[in-house]
Structures are given as structure tokens and as C-alpha cells.
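Quick question, first post here. What does this chain look like in 3D?
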Amino acid sequence: MKKINSLLLFLLSVPFSILAQDLKGTDAIPFDPNVKTGKLKNGLTYYIRKNSKPENKVDLRLVINAGSILETDQQQGLAHFMEHMCFNGTKRFPKNQLVDYLQSIGVKFGQHLNAYTSFDETVYFLPIPSDDAEKLEKGFQIIEDWAFNANLTPEEIDKERGVVLEEYRLGLGADKRMMDRFMPKMMYNSHYANRLPIGKKEILENFTYDKLTAFYKDWYRPNLMSVIVVGDIDVAQMEQKIKDHFSTYQNPKNEKPRKSFDVPNHKETFICIESDKEASDAGVQLLYKDAGLPKKTVTVNDYRNDLVKGLFTTMINNRLQELTNTPNPPFVYGFSYHGGTFARTKEGYQSFAMVSEDKQLEALKVLVTENERAKKFGFTQSELDRAKADVLANYEQSFNEKDKTNSERFVSEYQSYFLEGVPAPGIEWEFNITKKMLPTVTLKETNDLIKNYVKDDNRVIILTGPEKEGLKKVSEAEVLQALDLKNADVTAYKETEVASSLLKNKIKEGSVVKKESNAKLGFTTLTLSNGAKVTYKKTDFKNDEILMEGISFGGSNLYSNEDMKKVQFANGGLTEAGFSGLKKNDIDKFMSGKIANVNPYISNVTEGLRGSTTPKDLEYLFQMTHAYMTDLNFDKEAFEGYKQKQSAFFKNLSSQPSVYFQQEFYGYLMKDNPRFNGIFPDEKAWSATDYELAYNKYKERFANAGDFEFFFVGNVDDKQMEDFSAKYIASIPSSQTKEQPIDLGYRMLKGDLKKVVNKGSDPKSSVTIMYYGDATYSAKEALAIQALGEILTIKLVEELRENESGVYGVSARGSMNKVPNGAYNFTIGFPCGPENAEKLTASALNELQKIIDEGPQEKDLIKFKEGEILDFKKESKENKFWLSNFTKSYVSGVPVEDVLQFEDKVNALTAKEIQEVAKKYLTKDKTIGILMPE
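> Answer (accepted):
Ran it through. C-alpha cells below.
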């Protein structure tokens, strides 16, 4: 036996290359063989992959390896401005024709069609239908025009200044003010400290047109570009399209070098203690910057090193998570990892925590201590085993979904490969290599990592938080003292025993008494011996996914007004206690290597449980469901820990002007509702909270399984569903009682109302326009009012953004409810400058009035229909869509089969029906809320 153990130790200590006969550690990581890749003569790189998830759709992405870091002093903000201009007109699609055309084929601006600019790259997203040759060709014309043919006319540039300045305005506030102060230390002596992508206001207002044109010509060039095409396509045809559209373009004759910018090292420890009167939370960050440049992951041994790093990260964060689950948590949440900073050229070991306003030093000490504990004593073998199990479970799930992965995920992978050389070998290679490597990773390897991470130089500590009377500001001396652990009594991590089961009580199994099938929608309903129903639909959308929701009428509307105020904010913390005598940390440890979760909830008219799992771990989901319904723990200490975290999160939230506005606005509209207790808890609400009452009410809500129906959608097995339902659901106590949703009759204030709220020091406003009231629910009207919202959004973007340059974003949404009472709701909202709030409000109402008077334009109705049907075709191949369809049918009483007529109903919708719903509901009282600065 001793010989065998010695041999095993030897095998675990040798390099991976000896173990894997087919791979050497020095071998290069291969690139995914399912991807066609190439480079045009002009240097443009392309990646093409056929992938049929979702069907008849392709994701086109234009990636430019250039961002704000390359701007001159006079161009600050113009990389991002250029991104805006690409949507404002190109050679083939002048002015707003580009967005107009894409909306006409179902591509929604902002939701589908989008882009972003960062320090080092600019990226454009274009998902389009792939089953139409003309639409495909137009898609390639668009990305070609983005790359080389944007219309940079003085008129369009000046119009867009207002829109970009509105986006700049959105970013103003406490976080920006504090960031502006700590960035010079965080990115010490680096170009990154002075090149935030949004730029500078004075430059955005005054730059000359040639500065923008120069940026476009210098950096939008083939040898800094990649075109990525992933979707339900013919690969050879796509490759030819790339060649046809991009081969003729040349790089500038005297091209500027694409520099990379270093972040210089420093011996000092930089300490930034920043506060602001409008800061809504307090945070702590430690950054230990690496001395050298990031090491690229190129070889098999590099990949293994990343795996070791991943295991370390999992273990250190498991420890921090355990601390957040204690009765006196040091922070709301905390995490650590080694990875990238704002700069591509600098990585570091980073620890973060969100904390209570008066616990910054305590949280800092905890983060430093946990790093020191790991450095001094390392991790335990059982911690490493759990981390390995978690890593393997996640890789296995990805591997099982290899033919059911969304195109968007692949596109992002190849983008990272192009920009930063992040390996993209494909999940088959990664899963197989990870399975082989994991057993060879030793505790010594993971324990040694942090010794190279945590050091006394090249270190930055950042504290951010609220500034207010009575709150003592932390000093630099106190921070340095917290970092000094010379006299600290740091002990080794104490392992606790891992539970052997999720259930402690013996189960008295029930049975399936009836089984019915619905051939139309392909689902089965089991009626159980205790009266509960289990409905399941087997799908092939995902190989390794099962979603669940159990639901029952009742909810908190059955509570008295007095009880509601005592339990409203306690309900969310009930599950912090755990179940079956197990604490949350016990459950987390038991679930290592398993993928299953269940979350109970109590809404105003229903109670229920939501969960997800894999086919392999389905039984654990059933066990959790059983435990939450029959054996929730009562633990005052756990609830106190929850209360502390929630209080830390919410305490200063209303310092944020936008949140303060919501609180004041809805407080005004709900003033006649005795159950309204604010949109989040304050100290008074917490002091009135009764945990024991909330616990007893929860037990009451989940006492009768016979009033529940459980819905499962995914890769389910009939026998498992019957066996687990009989064992874990049919065994839950029940009665003959059937509850119904109750309408308590409380409503928001009615009338032609206006509420102006003054808050904030920045020149920022926002406008909310609302129409609401009781109505008899009609599915036809519900679709019409939804369409009205989306069509009005199109018109508001055209008028308020494109014509008036007064907003960055604007939206309108309409809906109808049936339960607990028939009602309609229609909302228009946008942020803007205070000087424009009234004018833009009038413009928005004017656009609405046009639809009331004349009805929507046919072309806008077509945009709505195309977008809805495109979304429906994609979403109806997803498990969450069908689960939502089941629960909506349960709540509203609408037949579950109605979904089959969705396309017909959308296509049948007329402009007249939309006009009629606008006249019926949006010509009476309205409520306007406006946030203005102080």
C-alpha cells in the first residue's frame, strides 16, 4: 500500500506533459477546428463558424483594435463619438436609413443592434436573419460601411454632439467624481488615467471636424480589424462575402503605429480615500499590481497554469462567501481574483468588498487577513477537492451543450482571441484536457500562487463611500495599520464536516394518481396523491438544462395591513437560515460539483419556487423543493446577518438622485395605500420588521402542496419525473383548500398630476410620464398597447434623439394586467438636461398625440411586427420561454395553447386597433414626474 501511495504522489508531482501521451506541455494550444479563419492581404482577420442556435440567424461583428487610448489630447472622447457616427449615416445608408432599414427587418436598435467603445477597442454588433439572401447582403454592406464609409458631414457631427453630451451627462455623479480622483493613483503615471472613453465635455462641445475624420482614417483600417461571422450560414459563402466586401480597402500609406501603453510600477503604497455626499454605497478595493507584463496563454502548460489559478480563485472566494453568511458579516459581498485591470498591459491580484458605511476598515482587515491566511497556511485538501468538482461540473455542462450554444457566445470568444490572444480551442478540447489535468493539480501549486501575488510594493488601496455628518472618515494611517499584520493572530482555516444529505426527515412517499398528455404542445401533467400537479415539457433546446417553477395562488395580499408592514422586507431573508438543519454554508459545501438551485418567493398574489438544474442533478432540485416547503430553518442570527447586509446596501441608496426621485415619486402616488412602506427599507422599517411572524407566514403559505402546480421544462426523463414527483412532491402535506388571488382595492393616485422632485448637484434631470387605471383585460388590447409602446419608442428616438439631440435614450412601454385586477399601464421615460425637461416632455406628448389623432404609420407597424416575430422565433426555442408561458397561463387563466396563435395575432394587428387603444386609455388623466437638480 505504501508503494502505491508513493507512486501516486510521484504521479501528482510530475509535469502534465509526461502524463498526456498525446500532448506535451510545450505544445501550442490549438485553435477551434470548427472555425474557418483567415487573413486578407490587407491584414483584416476573419473568423467564420456555422452554428444553428438560434436558427435562421447570424451574428455579424466588426471588431476594431482601437479605442480611446489612441486618442490625441485634442481627440478625447472621439473614439466613442465615432462609434455614434457609424449609426448616423453611411455611404449606402445615409442619415437614419441604416437604423430604419434594420428595424424594418426586425432588428431592434439598442436591444439587438449595438456597439461599445473601451480603452483599447471599438466593437459593433449586428444580429440579422440569415434565411434571406438580400438581408444577408445588406448586413455585410452595413459592416463594410461602418468600417470604411461613415458619413462624417459637419451637419451630422454637430447634431450628434447633443446626443453624446447627453450620454456624458448620464455618467455624471458621485461614482465619476470619486473615480476621477482615484484613477491617477490606480493607473499611476499611465496614459489610461487620462483616456476614459467618454472623453471631456469641453472637447465634445468644441472639437473641429478634422479631429474626428483623422481618428477614423488613422485607426479604422484593415490591419486593425476583424470580421466575425457565426450563425446558421454557409461558411464558404460567408468567406466569399468577406473577401468581396473588404479585400479592396488599403491601409494608410504612412500608418500610425498601434502602440500599447504600459502602467509604470511604483514602490509606494498608494491610498485613495474618497467620499461624496451622493455616494450610495461604500466599497473597499485592494490592488496588487504585477511587476511585469501579462503572460499570454499559449502552450498547454500555460493552460494548466490558468486552471490552477482558477482553482485558487474558487477557493479564496468560497471562503469570502462563507464569511458573508455569518451572523455578523464583514461585508455585503466580497471577492478576490488575479486578472486584468483597465489596461491590457497590466494585471494584478485584486480584492473587493461592498461594505456598510462604517465598516470599511473592518472589511479591509478581513480581506487582508484572508489573503494572509491563504498565504501562510494555504488551503485544505477538501477545499481543493470541492473546487475541482465545481470546475469540472461547469466544464461538463458547457461540453454537454456544445451543439446547443448560442452564436453570441462563440462570437465573444473569437473577439477575445483576436484582441488579446485569449485561447479559443473549443469546448471539446477544453473539457477533455481539463478532465486529464485536474487530478494532477496539487495543493502545493494552488497554495504557492498567492505568495507571488501579495506584496508591499506596487500596491493601491481604494476606499469609496458616503460623506455625511456624524460619519468619521477613515485616515491613511488607519489604512496602513489595517494592512500591517505583524502582530495579528492569523490561524489556519477550520474545515467543517460536510453534510451527507439535503434532507434530515424521513420521507413518506406518495404516488401519481393520474397522468394526462397534451399532444398539441407536447407536455404531460401528473396529478399526485396529495392533490399537487406536476406538468413537464420535454425539449431538445438544451442538453443539460431543466427549469422549474412551482406556483400557487395566495401571496401576501392575504396578510393584514399591519402584518404586511412587519414582514414585507423580511420575506427576502427567510432562506438565509437554510433548511433541514443545514446552514447556507453547509448546503453550499454539499452542492460542490452539483448544479441545482431553488429559490422560494412570495409575491402579492402568488407564492412559489423557481429553480434550475441539469438532468444529472435533477433529484437535488426535487430535494431542495421538498426541504423549502417542509423544513425551512428558523435562525434569528442568520436573519440578523441578512438584515445587516441589506441595511448596508439600502442605507445610502437614496443619496443617489435617481433613486431618491423614485422613492419620492412613488411615495406620492401611493400615499393613500396603507400597505405601501417605501420602495426599500429604512431604519424605521427594519425596526418594525418581525422575523418570527414572517417565518410563520411563510410556513402558512407553503403548507398546502395540494394548491400548487409545478412546471418543468427541459431535457427531462419521464420515469425520473414520475419517480421524483411521487417521492418528493406527493409526500408534502396538503389540504383541500384552494385559494384565489385577492384584489385589495388599493390604487395609485388618479388625476392630471405633476410631481417635481429636486435632488442632486449635477445638471441631470429625468422625466416619467404615466397613464394607468382599471380596465377589463383583453388579450387583443394588451397586444395593441404593447405595440403602441414599441412604435412610440421608435418615434421618440427619431424626434427627441435624432432631430432634437436632446436625449441619449428614451423608451415607452405599455401593458395590461388581469390579476389581481384588470388594469392598464403606459409609461414614457427619458433622462435629459434640466433646461430641456419641459420642452422634451411636450415633444414626447406631441408624438403620442400624433398616433392618437392619425394612428401609427404602416412602416412603423411593420417594424413592430418584424421585431416581435423575430424575437418569438428565437425565444420559442428556449426553455425559459415555455416555462414563462405555463406560469402566465396559470396566473391569467388564458389557455396555454394560445401561444400557438401568437404569430397570427401579431400579423393580424392593425394600425386602427393601436389608434383605438391609444384613444381609449391615453387621452384621460396622466401623471408626470420630473427630477430636477437642487
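The first strand starts at residue 36 and ends at 39.
The radius of gyration is 29 Å.
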